[in-house]
Amino acid sequence: MYPFAFAKATDTREALDAGRGGGRYIAGGTTLVDLMRETVERPETLIDISGLPLRGVTVTERGGLRIGALVRMAEAAAHPKVRSLFPVISEALELSASAQLRNMATIGGNIMQRTRCSYFRDVTADCNKREPGSGCAALEGHNRTHAILGTSDACVATHPSDVAVAFAALEANVHLLGPAGERRVPFADFLLRPGSTPNREQALRKGELITAVEIPALPRPLKSGYLKVRDRQSYEFALTSAAVALHVRRGVIQTAKVAAGGVGTVPWKLPVVEQHLVGERPSDALWSSAAAHAANGARPLAHNRFKTELLKRTVERQLRIVGGTK
Fold first, then answer.
1. Architecture of 223-323 per CATH?
2. Per its UniProt record, what SUPFAM superfamilies does this chain match (predicted)?
C-alpha cells in the first residue's frame, strides 16, 4: 500500500465537490481495495460514499425497476420485487462471488469493477488498460479466459460482472449525477469497448456518481433467467454465460432479450439471436437455430477457441430453460 487521503461524504453535494477535485469514490471497496493493494490503482484520495441516500429498490410507474447504486448485491438478489419481476437479475447476483463479498459489494460498484485479466493485475506485464501504449501481453500470452467478442489489437480482456450481463440483456439505463447535473445513459453505452483506448472503460465524466440502475418495463408475462458456465461451481468467473428474457403470448415469442458474459470485452448483447426468435413459436429447433448466431463476429485467440462453441451451447441451453421445449 501507499499513502492516500480519505474523506467521508455526508451528502451528494459534498461527494460531487470532492469528486470534481479528482478523488475516487468507494463504497463496498471489494474491487478498488484489491487493486490498491496490488498497486494497480493508486488514487491520491478516496471518498467514502457509503452513507449517501442512494439505496432502495422501487417499482417504477410503468412496471420497471429502479435499484439504488448503493444497494448491496445480496440485498438486491433477495428483494421480492427483483425476484418476481426480473429473476435473471437475482440469479446473476447469486452466482457472483462469495456470500461475504455479496454482503459488501454494491450494485454501482459491481458494474464499475475492472477486469480480472491476470496481465492487468500484474504490474510487471504489458497492459494497455493499465498503462496506455505499453502493449497487451494477453495477445500472445495465456489467453484461455479472455474475450472473443468486442476485442481490439489493444485489449482482449473480458468484463467480469454477471449482473451487468442481465442489465445489458434487459436494456437497463444508468442514472448519473455530476457537476453538470443529472443524466441517463443506456447500459449499452455505459461500458465502453476497448478500441484504441482500453484504459477508458465507462462513459462517466469527471466527478460523476452513479445513483441508480433502472430496468425498463417489459411486456408481461415475462420469463427470465441466468446461466453461468465456469471451471468450478463456486467463486469463479464465467467462461461464458447467458441472460435470457422472453415474453410469449398465444404461443408466439413477442419479445426476446438475450446477452452473453465471459466472452466479450463488455457484456455482449445478441441482437441477431433476438431477431431470430421474435415472431416464432418456441421449439428445440428454434433454440438451436437462434443460438447458432450467438458467436457471430467472434475473434478467438490461441487458447480460447473453445469459447465459440461453448457460447452457442450456453445460449441454446438457457433459451431452452427459459422458453421450454416442444
1. 2-Layer Sandwich (3.30)
2. CO dehydrogenase flavoprotein C-terminal domain-like, FAD-binding/transporter-associated domain-like
User: Is the Cβ–Cβ distance between 265 and 168 less than 8 Å?
Assistant: no
Closest by CA position to 19, among listed 49, 52, 51, 55: 49
C-alpha span between 88 and 200 (Å, rounded): 28
Would you say 206 and 174 are in contact if contact means Cβ atoms under 8 Å apart? no
Look up residue 292 and give its three cell numbers.
447458432
pLDDT digits (tens, 9 = 90+) for 112-163: 999 999 999 999 999 999 999 999 999 999 999 999 999 999 999 999 999 9
pLDDT in tens, 33-69: 999 999 999 999 999 999 999 999 999 988 999 999 9
Q: How far is CA 131 from CA 160, 273, 276, 309, 319, in A?
A: 20, 36, 41, 33, 40
Amino acid at 31: T
Cell 465507462 found at? 202
Sheet containing 268-269: which strands, arranged edge to edge? 223-229, 240-249, 252-261, 268-269
Q: Compute CA 183 distance to the chain's CA centroid, rounded to the nearest angstrom.
A: 20
- CA nearest 244: which of 51, 119, 86? 86
**Which residue carries 460523476 as its cell?**
208
